[in-house]
Amino acid sequence: MSDVASPRIAIIGAGVIGLSMAWRLAQRGARVTVFERDAAGQGASHAAAGMLAACAEVEPGEEHLFVLNRASQALWPEFAVELEHASGMAVDLRREGTLVVALNADDRARLQHHLEFQHQLGLSFDWLNAAEVKKREPHLTPGLVGALFSPQDHQVDNRKVAAALRIAAEHAGAVIHEHAPVDRIVIEHGRAVGVMVADNLHRADTVVLAAGAWSRAIEGLPAEARPPVRPVKGQMLSLRMDARSPLLRHVVWAPHVYLVPRHDGRLLVGATVEERGFDPHLTAGGQLTLLNAAWRALPGIEDLPLEESWVGFRPGSRDDAPILGTGPLEGLVYATGHHRNGILLTPITAQAIATLLLEGHGDPLVAPFGLDRFAPAVAAE
Question: CATH classification of 8-80+158-228+318-380 is 3.40.1390.30, yes or no?
Answer without folding.
Answer: no
